[in-house]
Design brief:
heterodimer, A: Uridine Diphospho-n-acetylenolpyruvylglucosamine Reductase, domain 2, Uridine Diphospho-n-acetylenolpyruvylglucosamine Reductase, domain 3, Alpha-Beta Plaits, 4 domains, 5-stranded antiparallel β-sheet, disordered C terminus, B: Uridine Diphospho-n-acetylenolpyruvylglucosamine Reductase, domain 3, 8-stranded antiparallel β-sheet
């Protein structure tokens, strides 16, 4: 429950319908896209002006009430899970695109604007906003900044941090600050980079300037089948060694292709151990030259079958299976748990073999989809939360995969964020002194730890509770050996 | 940090001792960018002894390098595999190191199209102001675990930590590059590069000076050829040498700067109109970077102009400094800088004052 004085202040700042406290009204905010973790907040505030945000933050800061900023709630790591004594500060009402400058190729948008809405608004100028997380139809741009969201075109077009010029935000003390500007760099430390991926711990975002990219004239995708995971993994390395940076480069294993096929009928080759989707985009001349190279490399790498999209409908069909991977997992299993580790590409087949071994050990099926271009692996563990013990087993399996990602030189989260979900993984990935610097950054912005407390950066005490050893990638000599 | 590396252990001991005695350290690599930022008084701390390429895997598109490694050595190693540092870092003089490149955070002509130093940084190892060896980020393209300290260190001029090692994304060298020239006014040049930037053209650099706009096109042969057909212009031979001269300020435009004339770096909205700011201007980065060599420029006016045009003005180099190097920061940002600095270097011993009032 909110202290009555804070409730009174918020009620004075906001119209009645913009302050929710009854459990039936706050229930929709109890979790984000990761439903394993839930909590009812003391209140939900829905401001629609920056002045209201400032006033809310000042009131909460003065009374030491935690604040959890929230966009569309599509996050997958519990980053927007409420604090039971805190206020959820929803930015859902900030939905206006304030300006599009086609000549400078930028858009100024409010935080609650959906990712895809920016591209739709820019389409008239043949421009778009490049990062395309799979939730782009629903997720908000401020949520993308908070998580440094990725997508399937990151290798060529970058992550959120590469596509944001300026973030205007409010600190917990109610100060309005601008990170970055309209130029290509800003004086002093790169606080704009720091805000990207800060998971709502440093400031509440009220306005964003994003970079817009010219739409590629033409795109074509090659679908290649491989008899082994190793061959598919090696083909990825060979494409890159050839000097090709594909617009998209995705790998799906057989469990994943079989799962999606019943769902979208993309006509994937189901007898293949793995398939690759390799997209080329650019001018028609560029794509035609690059696609010839891609086909040659895939053939040399032992592809058993190669199909190149003949038209836009077929290109979208090839992609439909990949884009439906998560919902398909939800169709063939009562529940699924998506893991988000990143690994060096060369470690792929070793890691997938280990996952297959553990899958048998736990008796839990796994489908693997892999952003092969940037090493971001999403094993989808299929489980049934109604079977006693299965959720715990799933979490244990997931933790084991993340530890393996660290050991092979990767990270526990490529694009979904630490949130509450991967605090244990963060304890393992970072040494105590490194975590202490993260906490120092937090202190510099928010000395009383009121913005999204308990997320993203574990305290050393929290790590001690997990009782885990720090297993820093760089220090391990036998990366292939599991620690269990 | 590589356990037991004797050089790094020595660095840590030295910083710990400096921390204890509050001794300022003036960090340096090749000294090729010593002119940039404010002068530092302190015990010289030379990073060049810690050199060498730790790991380079072309198919992973990542190179991991010790700070003291010569930038030229890294570029040579990448070139032998058909790859490059796409942010085209300036050398300014022989001897530029990777540590200095990361700490200065300066990028070259390809920046607006390929990204800046910070955009290619994947991980760093540092020794902070307490003498602690810390690693952030990693060697993978996508990594959102923890705050982005890697990019925070990039361009911090050593005031948050001594960069010991960097993992940097590499990209393939374009198959073909061509440079085209156009006789235009400054305003027309600014308009054209912005319009072209909004089209799917393989632009990779632009430079306007003395009534001539030069643009570089990079990519597959077919793409470059079709772009040339669309844009026209006249062919420029020796394109590579030209862009290297812009990158390293060896271009004749910067001649008087070599005699000590002040060089201003104005980083602004790419569409900012051309303005007579009291000296000759060279315009790079699709309009977003304006160089001004102006012996009698009015710093306050320049800064007001840059700020009004969405950016900032740096007194990049000058024999006699009549203004601060860095554009002054608004109050709340300055406060955040001071608090971050205090967390990473509580006694302010690393390059004190190099960032001026900020750090």
């Amino acid at each position: 429950m909110l202290p009555p004085s804070v409730h009174a202040q918020l009620a004075a700042i906001l119209p009645g319908e913009a302050l929710l406290t009854a459990p039936e009204a706050t229930r929709p905010y109890e979790c984000d896209g990761l439903t394993l973790f839930r909590e009812l907040p003391a209140a939900v505030a829905l401001p629609d002006t920056e002045a209201q945000v400032v006033a809310i933050l000042r009131a909460c800061h003065a009374a030491r009430v935690p604040v959890v900023a929230r966009g569309a709630g599509t996050g997958l790591s519990g980053g927007a899970m409420p604090h039971k004594d805190g206020v959820v500060l929803s930015l859902a009402k900030f939905r206006r695109i304030l300006a599009i400058d086609p000549l400078a190729r930028t858009a100024v948008v409010q935080p609650g604007v959906r990712n895809l809405a920016i591209s739709e608004a820019a389409a008239a100028h043949n421009l778009y906003y490049a990062p395309d997380p799979s939730s782009q139809i629903a997720c908000t741009i401020a949520g993308n900044v908070a998580e440094n969201a990725g997508g399937v075109h990151c290798l060529k077009y970058g992550l959120t941090v590469h596509n944001v010029r300026r973030v205007r935000g409010v600190t917990i003390e109610g100060e309005v600050v601008e990170f970055g500007n309209e130029a290509l760099d800003a004086p002093g430390y790169d606080l704009l980079a720091l805000i990207n991926g800060s998971e709502g711990l440093l400031a509440v975002i009220t306005e964003i300037t994003v970079k817009l990219t010219p739409k590629p004239q033409f795109a074509q995708v090659a679908l290649a089948a491989f008899a082994t995971i190793e061959a598919a993994g090696e083909a990825v390395g060979k494409v890159i060694a050839e000097g090709i940076i594909p617009g998209g480069l995705e790998l799906m294993d057989q469990a994943a292709t079989r799962a999606v096929e019943q769902f979208v009928h993309a006509n994937y080759p189901l007898d293949a151990a793995a398939i690759l989707l390799v997209e080329s985009d650019g001018t028609p001349e560029e794509v035609s030259a690059e696609m010839a190279d891609i086909k040659r490399v895939l053939t040399d790498s032992g592809a058993t079958e190669i199909r190149v999209s003949k038209d836009e409908a077929q290109r979208l069909l090839f992609w439909s299976g990949r884009k439906a991977a998560f919902p398909a997992a939800g169709r063939i299993s009562p529940d699924y748990y998506c893991i988000d580790g990143t690994i060096p590409r060369k470690a792929l087949s070793g890691v997938l073999h280990k996952i297959a071994e553990w899958s048998a050990e736990y008796g839990l099926r796994v489908a693997n989809v892999f952003h092969a271009g940037d090493g971001n692996l999403h094993p989808l563990i299929l489980y049934d939360a109604n079977v006693p013990g299965e959720a715990d087993k799933t979490i244990a399996f997931g933790d084991r995969i993340l530890d393996l990602c660290i050991e092979v030189g990767g990270t526990v989260t490529g694009e979904h964020g630490v949130g509450v979900e991967k605090l244990r993984g963060a304890c393992n990935q970072f040494a105590p002194a490194e975590l202490e610097r993260f906490l120092g950054i937090k202190r510099a912005f928010d000395p009383h730890a009121l913005l999204n407390p308990g997320k993203a950066v574990p305290t050393l005490a929290r790590c001690a509770e997990f009782g885990r050893m720090h297993v820093h990638g760089g220090e391990l000599k036998h990366a292939e050996l599991p620690r269990y | 940090m590589t356990a037991g590396d004797p050089i790094l252990e020595r660095w840590q001991e030295r910083v710990r001792a400096a921390h204890a005695a509050r001794t300022p350290l003036a960090i340096r690599g090749g000294g090729t960018k010593a002119f940039y930022g404010e002068p530092v008084a302190g015990e010289p701390f030379d990073t060049r002894e810690y050199a060498g390429i730790v790991d380079y895997e072309p198919t992973e598109l990542v190179v991991t390098v010790r700070a003291g490694t010569l930038l030229a050595d890294v570029e040579r190693a990448l070139a032998s595999e058909g790859q490059m540092l796409a942010f085209e870092p300036p050398h300014f003089a022989p001897g530029a190191t990777v540590g200095g490149t990361v700490a200065a955070g300066l990028s070259g002509p390809r920046r607006p199209y390929a990204g800046a130093v910070r955009d290619h940084m994947l991980g760093v190892r540092i020794v902070d102001g307490r003498g602690e060896a810390l690693a952030f980020g990693g060697r993978v393209m996508k990594n959102v675990a923890g705050f982005d300290v890697t990019r925070l260190m990039t361009g911090a001029l050593g005031t948050l930590g001594i960069v010991a090692e960097a993992s940097i994304k590499c990209l393939p060298v374009p198959r073909v590059e061509a440079t085209r020239a156009f006789e235009v006014s400054a305003d027309e040049g600014i308009r054209r590069v912005n319009e072209w930037g909004g089209k799917p053209l393989p632009l990779s650099a632009s430079c306007f000076a003395g009534g001539r706009l030069l643009v570089r096109l990079s990519g597959a042969a077919a793409a470059v050829e079709s772009a040339i057909a669309k844009l026209g212009g006249e062919a420029v031979a020796e394109g590579a040498a030209f862009w290297a001269s812009v990158r390293d300020h060896a271009h004749p435009f910067f001649a008087s700067a070599r005699d000590g004339a002040p060089v201003w770096r104005l980083s602004v909205r790419s569409t900012a109109p051309y303005a007579d700011l009291g000296g000759e201007t060279l315009i790079e980065w699709g309009g977003a970077l304006r160089w001004l060599v102006a012996p009698r420029a009015d710093a306050a006016k320049l800064r007001a102009w840059a700020w009004a045009n969405g950016g900032h003005a740096t007194l990049f180099s000058a024999q006699e400094r009549a203004a601060s190097a860095l554009h002054p920061l608004p109050g709340p940002l300055a406060g955040l800088h001071a608090r971050l600095r205090a967390e990473f270097d509580p006694r302010g011993i690393l390059n004190p004052g190099r960032m001026g009032a900020v750090a």
